Amino acid sequence: MDFSGWEKLSLLDFDDNITTTLFMAGCSFRCPFCQNSSLVLHPETAPKIPWSEIMDYLEKRKSVLDAVCVTGGEPTLMPDLAEKLADIKSLGYKIKLDSNGSRPEIIRVLVNQGLVDYVAMDIKNSPEKYAMTTGCNSLNMDDIMETTHYLIDNHIPHEFRTTTIAEYHNEHDFEEIGKWLNGAQRYFIQRYVDSEHCIAHGLHMVSKEKALEFKAILEKYISHVDLRGYD
Ligand code: SF4
Fold first, then answer.
1. From the CA of 172, how far away is ligand 1's center (Å)?
2. Which atom from ligand 1 is nearest to the alpha carbon of 134?
3. Rounded Cα gap, residues 101 and 128, in angstroms
4. Quick one: which of 21, 17, 24, 12 has its CA closest to 69?
5. 76-105 burial code (b ≥16 CB/10 A, e <16)
């Protein structure tokens, strides 16, 4: 299976690493605020980037790039993801995996095989509002819970992050999220930006003042909490 999008140079995706970011088409969720609607809703029409082209680029830029970020869609749905990550690893790159956490068994295998260096998992909302926030009628919350518990058990450096929406998130939700993710390494509260690429429209960002209130709630449970996109 091929990747469908490619941001060749990014300084924002993986801390201070100079990163190239690969996008996979297809996702098990339908988050209304998703910024990649075409990849999620129409994966069959998404571009297919030859793997040889990506590997050639990575081979030639080993002295310039530090890392590869693999994102989506939901990359753990990619049948040959482990093989592709192994190819990247053979060139010496660090790898960051973005995931919605719906396939804990895949993340466990990738970590055990040393194919990822950092996992960033979306937390869509408090458990009781999770399915609604993903745009799914039903959702296996056990899988989401399993992934979060695996990451919090410190098998690998990780972060959780939530794109906050005024219509979906309130203080009670972040209290519940804090209790759930007590002991996580890092948490980022991300600013929502409406765009033509979103699955749904008419949603609103959370103000910086409200985001700081959410941050204060999470800091009772998680040592490193920060805002992202509010500068
Ligand atoms: S935001 Fe992430 S999890 Fe949600 S639909 Fe988009 S790619 Fe899937």
1. 23
2. 4
3. 16
4. 21
5. bbbeebeebbebbbeeebbbbbbbbbbbbe
Ligand 1 atom index nearest CA of 71: 7
Structural domains in the chain, sorted by start: 5-228 (3.20.20.70)
**pLDDT tens-digit map of 7-30:** 999 998 899 999 999 999 999 999
| Alpha-carbon span 148 to 152, nearest angstrom | 6
CB 102 within 8 Å of CB 142:
no
- How many Å apart are CA 176 and CA 182, to the nearest integer? 10
For residue 154, the model assigns a pLDDT of: 85
Non-local (6+) Cβ contacts of 109 within 8 A are: 82
E strands, the chain, where?
Answer: 5-10, 19-23, 67-71, 94-99, 118-122, 158-164, 186-191, 224-228
* Pairwise CA distance, residues 167 & 53, whole Å: 42
Model confidence pLDDT, tens digit, residues 126-158? 999 999 999 998 899 999 999 999 999 988 999
Tell me how far the alpha carbon of residue 151 lies from the centroid of ligand 1, in angstroms: 19
